[in-house]
Write a structure and sequence with these properties.
Layout (H helix, E strand, L loop, with lengths): L2 H16 L6 E3 L1 H9 L4 H9 L3 E5 L4 E7 L5 E8 L3 E7 L1
Parallel strand pairs: 1-5
Antiparallel strand pairs: 2-3, 3-4, 4-5
Length: 93
Amino acid sequence: MKAKAALARLRRLGMAAAAGAFGAVVLTDHALEEARRIGLDEADVIHALATASKCAWQPVHGTWKVKGVDRFGMTVVLAVDLQAAAIVVTAFD
């Protein structure tokens, strides 16, 4: 999948999750721990996906590195395993 298509799909899944679609976005325990460590909650992570502005394939990890913003406009970087759902693997600071 090309980055442009992945970005569009990630944004759609983020918007679906923000609207309450169960299972559109799944956060691993590690992702939740890292998000909380850097001051984010699940809603911030979902917002970052819905507002994603950039993504790049990380072949070493087999994930997409996704850049978006939280609910307060702060930049958020996520690692996402894009399958049937967007599975957020971790959050970076």
